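User: Can you write out an input/output pair for a complex, sequences first and structure second?

Assistant: Here is one pair. Inputs:
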Amino acid sequence: MSTFQAPKGTYDLLPPDSATYLAVREAIAAPLRNSGYGYIETPGFEDVELFARGVGESTDIVTKEMYAFETKGGDRLALRPEGTASVLRAALEANLHKAGNLPVKLWYSGSYYRYERPQKGRYRHFSQVGAEAIGAEDPALDAELIILADQAYRSLGLRNFRILLNSLGDKECRPVYRAALQDFLRGLDLDEDTLRRAEINPLRVLDDKREAVQRQLADAPLLRDHLCDACKAYHEEVRELITAAGVAFEDDPKLVRGLDYYTRTTFEFVHGGLGSQSAVGGGGRYDGLSEMIGGPALPSVGWALGVDRTVLALQAEGVTLDIPAATSVYAVPLGEEARRVLFGVVTELRRAGVAADFSFGGKGLKGAMKNANRSGARFALVAGERDLAEGTAQLKDMESGEQVPVALDAVVSTLRARLA
Ligand code: ATP
Ligand code: MG
C-alpha cells in the first residue's frame, strides 16, 4: 500500500483481468473495422460549450456530471463525458464530410468521465467503444449499426441482452408530441425539479427512473402515436432490416436517452444481470447535432457501448473469454553463461514473432520453473553449462512434461514449427 489510492469512483485495470477488457474492446471494434469504419481519436477534453450545446443544457450529463474546469490560460474546458460531440466536432473541423464520400464512418475507443454517484457499473472514469456514421439519412445505416453491436456482443458470447428500439420523431412531428406530453406532465404531481425539466425537455421526464414518477407516466401520450408519415416509414424500414438480419429487438415506446440530440431511431442494449445499471450500450440518430454545434445539416447515427458494463455482463453470464496466454516460451538459464546465451535466444525469438519471456533475477531452477508455470507458457527452454557445452538447450513441453534437447541454432525454427 502506498499513501495514495485510486480516486473515488475509479478503479485500476490489472493483469490478468485487464486482458478481458482489451479483448472486449477488440471484439466490439472488430465488426466495425470490418464494415468500413475508420479509427478516430480525439482529445480527452474539449471546450465545455461543445458538450453544453451538443449534449444538451438540460441533461444530467451537463448539469450534474461534467468535470468542467478553467485552465491557467483562462479556457473553459471539460473532460469528455461522451464521444459523439467530439467526433462530430473533429469531423467538421477536418472537413471529412466534404471529401465527397458520405457517410463518414468512424469508430473510437477511450476513457470518459462523469461525476456520478459511484456504484457497481457506474464509475467516474469508464470506457466506451463507439461508432458514428455521419452525413447520411438511410434506414440501412441505422440497421447496420444495431446489427454490428449485436454481432459484437454475440461474438463475445453474451446472450442475455435485449435490444430496445424506439423512434423519437423529427423536427416535423416531435414539437407536436412535445406539446402534448408537456400538457400531460403539467397535470401530474411532480417535484419542482421534474416540473422544470418538463418545461425544458419533457421527453427526458419519460426516462425518470423513480417508481413514483413512472407510475404517473402510465398513460402518457406516446411518440409512436404522433410520428409523421416520413418518420413512421423510416422507422418501419429500420425494423424490417433488423428483423431480416435475424436480430431480435423489442419496441419500447417510452425509450428516450440521456442526451438531447437524438432524433428518429433510438435504441439501447440492456442486460438482465447488471441490476439497476442495466444499459450496456445505447445510441441512435442525431440529425440535428451538426447544426447545433455550428456545422451544416448532416444527418447521422451512432452508438456507444460501455466496456466496463460489458465485462460485468460477461461475468454475470459466467462467460470467460478464451484469451491465449501472453507468453509461449519461457527461458530458464542456469548460470552466468546460460543467462547470456538464453537472453540472446529470447531476443531472437521475439524478433521472429514468438512471445517469449525470461527468468530474471538469477533464480534457481525450482523458482524459475514456478514462474514458467505461472506465465502459462507452452514451452520452457532450460539450459545449464552441460547443455551449452553440447550447443543445445532443453525444450520442455509444459503440458506433457516431455523434454528434448534442441540445437541452439535451431531453437527459433523448432519453436516456430511446434507453435504453428
Ligand atoms: P445510464 O442510464 O446507466 O446512466 P447513460 O444513458 O448515461 O447510462 P450513455 O451516455 O448512453 O449512458 O453511454 C453509453 C454506455 O456507456 C452506457 O450504456 C454504459 O454502458 C456506459 N456508461 C455510461 N455511464 C457510465 C458510467 N458512469 N460508468 C460506467 N459505464 C457507463
Ligand atoms: Mg447516465
